């Protein structure tokens, strides 16, 4: 029997079998725990692919597998070691699974899956560096963790706004006449260019961050600081986030954009440093700058190429080529940034010659951004103190099987939720889960020509790309009201709640007030008045443009079964999260979450005068009638053609 296949006395008493150096008991326990998350994980993956900026997630999975395989200690006797970090990650995975089961949160299942993989790799020693595990190889997966509270969408939206602003300034320098309304670029004699996809697809911010993380992992540049430093860094990062809310909480005003953005970036950097170290954190944050920079150049190239060279880069293969070229340049810039970091923060090679005081400073400096050689030396020194790796104890091996059992039970429960959605839904509607096209076409006659004193004057349909911020399809009816024009539309589909105010903000509107209204309050009814048991709430928004235009917006969503979606009273806040969580326990929500599509109904009034309370009350009444009619027609269409 080879050395790799020998068993120590401690491992001989356990149930873990060792064949050719692999402890299959550990592998099987983690593998079964991972597979048990497949039901919700499959839904999470399909849901993720609906967002264009997440399309490169498959490369993160491939990178983790490849780097872990390259660094795996295939020829060593102990391939799985004791690890307090791994044990902690197991506990966190159990917490994430609990939240996923109770509240039906697919992103929690994804987080649990990532923690399981990281926990597994934290037990595997790097074949070349004694004392270092392979946990860092799982970092690419976390780039594509779907952020809660709508943070990922807010992040992409912010990048779009910044890219649009900088593009406008560069076009001014090039003397290209244009008008930038939010994220919509209007160029005379060239048309209108939307910037909603500027941070999506192959030129995505997430793709550039993935490149930075994979590069750092492949070169073993990920090195977390000491525990005390990591805790302090995380605390200071949290303080930066809390400091952004102080002006709003104390004086009721928002912090200036510059200082708010600075505190946000500083907070993120400090938190990243606590987990992945100085060099990797700095490289990842550089991806934010290069994403904005390259998307600005990409957007600007379209009108510039059209005006000076008469080349259309806005569509077709030319547009695709422009996106790939932007991505390649962004990757090169990130790699060059790493070299710049090493130029300024590279390790001191001869710190020993500077005396005792210089040696201490040199060690502190080298701990910030070590290169591979320095890191290998440090790990080797740790390895001499820890002469041999400690194999997993028999007690922990049994705990792994218990961990696997809990995960299996959670997978069975999640399978039940998914199965109920697949087989049967409320009102006996068939459910085409994961259908590629879930839009339902509307026609002009689906809404009456006359709604009280509103008269229809126009109807049009707009089709967009899948994953568009404004929906893949919009059916729009324009009405003439006594004092202004009103626009009603059905926008579809969105992966869950879609905060429409974000889209209006991107087109130049400033939100004055946003509040949630119950159906009874919208209609001016007494709370005790009957509403046919329908508690479908709505959002009411008042807006204004710098030009003086006023806007009045009403919107809400219904799901694939015609049920109204729960309305977050304060979008993007903890209160909104609690509101959604409180509804997760109902069977209706548990079933519809796997379907996932949301259909939006809105009514928008625009005027240069302030809206009278009577006009707003009238708009609310008309809106309730319109959305009821839209939902009725939606269900009729599904009943007639379930594949619609």
Q: What percentage of residues falls in helices of 4 or more residues?
A: 40-55%
Write down the Rg: 28 Å
Distance between the amino and carboxyl termini: 63 Å
Percentage of β-strand residues: 5-15%
Q: Main sheet? A: 8 strands, antiparallel
In spatial order, strands of the major sheet run: 6-7-8-9-13-12-11-10
Going by helix content, strand content and strand pairing, the class is: alpha+beta
Low-confidence stretches: 1-21, 198-202, 372-387, 425-436, 585-589
**Overall number of strands:** 13
Question: In one word, what is the shape?
Answer: globular
Mean pLDDT figure? 79
* Count of DSSP-assigned helices: 22
Tags for this entry?
single chain; 644 residues; alpha+beta; disordered N terminus
Give a short summary of the structure.
The chain is 53% helix and 13% strand. The chain has 644 residues and is of the alpha+beta class.
Give a written overview of the molecule.
Among the domains are: about 1-145 and about 395-425, no CATH class; about 445-640. The chain starts with 8 loop residues before the first helix and ends with a helix. The radius of gyration is 28 Å and the shape is globular. Mean pLDDT is about 80; it is low at about 1-20, about 200, about 370-385, about 425-435 and about 585-590. With about 650 residues, the protein is α+β, with helices and mostly antiparallel strands. The longest helix is centred in the middle third of the chain and has 32 residues, at about 280-310. The protein contains 22 helices and 13 strands. The strands form three sheets. Strands 6-7-8-9-13-12-11-10 form an eight-stranded antiparallel sheet, sandwiched between helices. A three-stranded antiparallel sheet has the order 3-4-5, covered by helices on one side. It has helices at about 10, 25-35, 40-50, 55-70, 85-105, 105-120, 140, 150-175, 205-220, 225-245, 245-250, 255-275, 280-310, 315-345, 355-370, 370-385, 395-425, 500-505, 520, 575-585, 585-595, 615-640; strands at about 20, 20-25, 180, 185, 190-195, 450, 455-465, 475-480, 485-495, 510-515, 540-545, 550-560, 595-605. Helix 9 packs across helix 14.
């Amino acid at each position: 029997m080879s050395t790799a296949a020998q068993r120590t006395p401690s491992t001989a008493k356990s149930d873990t079998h060792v064949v050719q150096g692999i402890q299959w008991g550990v592998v099987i326990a983690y593998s079964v725990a991972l597979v048990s998350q497949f039901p919700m994980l499959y839904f999470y993956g399909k849901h993720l692919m609906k967002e264009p900026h997440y399309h490169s997630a498959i490369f993160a999975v491939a990178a983790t597998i490849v780097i872990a395989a390259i660094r795996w200690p295939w020829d060593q006797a102990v391939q799985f070691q004791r690890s307090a970090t791994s044990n902690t990650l197991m506990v966190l995975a159990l917490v994430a699974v609990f939240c996923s089961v109770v509240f039906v949160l697919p992103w929690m299942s994804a987080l649990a899956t990532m923690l399981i993989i990281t926990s597994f790799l934290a037990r595997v020693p790097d074949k070349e560096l004694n004392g270092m595990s392979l946990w860092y190889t799982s970092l690419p997966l976390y780039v594509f963790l779907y952020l809660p509270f709508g943070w990922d969408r807010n992040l992409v939206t912010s990048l779009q706004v910044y890219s649009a602003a900088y593009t406008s300034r560069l076009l001014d320098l090039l003397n290209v006449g244009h008008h930038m309304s939010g994220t919509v670029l209007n160029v005379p004699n060239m048309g209108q260019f939307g910037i909603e996809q500027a941070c999506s697809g192959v030129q995505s911010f997430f793709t550039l961050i993935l490149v930075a993380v994979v590069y750092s992992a492949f070169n073993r540049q990920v090195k977390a600081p000491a525990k005390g430093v990591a805790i302090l860094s995380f605390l200071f990062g949290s303080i930066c986030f809390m400091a952004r809310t102080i002006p709003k909480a104390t004086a009721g005003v928002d912090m200036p954009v510059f200082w708010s953005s600075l505190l946000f970036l500083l907070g993120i950097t400090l938190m990243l440093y606590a987990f992945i170290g100085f060099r990797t954190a700095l490289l990842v944050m550089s991806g934010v700058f290069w994403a904005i920079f390259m998307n600005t150049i990409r957007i600007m190239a379209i009108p510039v190429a059209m005006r000076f060279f008469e080349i259309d880069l806005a569509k077709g293969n030319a547009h695709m080529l422009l996106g790939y070229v932007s991505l390649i340049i962004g990757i090169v810039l990130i790699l060059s940034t790493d070299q710049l970091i090493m130029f300024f923060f590279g390790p001191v090679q001869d710190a020993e010659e500077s005396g005792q005081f210089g040696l201490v400073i040199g060690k502190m400096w080298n701990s910030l951004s070590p290169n591979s050689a320095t890191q290998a030396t440090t790990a080797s020194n740790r390895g001499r103190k820890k002469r041999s790796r400690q194999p997993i104890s028999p007690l922990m091996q049994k705990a792994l099987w218990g961990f696997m059992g809990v995960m299996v039970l959670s997978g069975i429960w999640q399978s039940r939720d998914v199965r109920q959605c697949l087989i049967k839904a409320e009102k006996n509607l068939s459910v085409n889960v994961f259908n590629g096209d879930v839009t339902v076409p509307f026609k002009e006659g689906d809404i009456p020509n006359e709604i009280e004193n509103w008269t229809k004057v126009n109807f049009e349909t707009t089709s967009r790309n899948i994953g568009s911020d404004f929906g893949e399809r919009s059916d729009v009816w324009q009405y003439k009201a006594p004092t202004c024009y009103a626009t009603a539309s059905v926008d579809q589909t969105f992966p869950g709640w879609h905060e429409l105010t974000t889209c209006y903000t991107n087109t130049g509107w400033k939100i004055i007030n946003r509040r949630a209204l119950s159906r009874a309050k919208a209609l001016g009814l007494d709370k005790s008045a009957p509403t046919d048991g329908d508690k479908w709430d709505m959002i009411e928004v008042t807006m204004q443009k710098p030009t003086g235009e006023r806007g009045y917006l009403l919107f809400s969503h219904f799901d694939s079964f015609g049920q109204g979606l729960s309305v977050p009273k304060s979008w993007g806040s903890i209160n909104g999260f609690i509101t959604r969580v409180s509804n997760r326990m109902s069977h209706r929500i548990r079933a519809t979450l796997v379907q996932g599509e949301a259909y939006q109904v809105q009514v928008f009034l625009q005027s240069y005068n302030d809206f009278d309370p009577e006009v707003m009350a009238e708009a609310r009444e008309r809106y309730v009638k319109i959305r009821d009619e839209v939902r009725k027609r939606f269900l009729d269409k599904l009943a007639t053609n379930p594949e619609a």
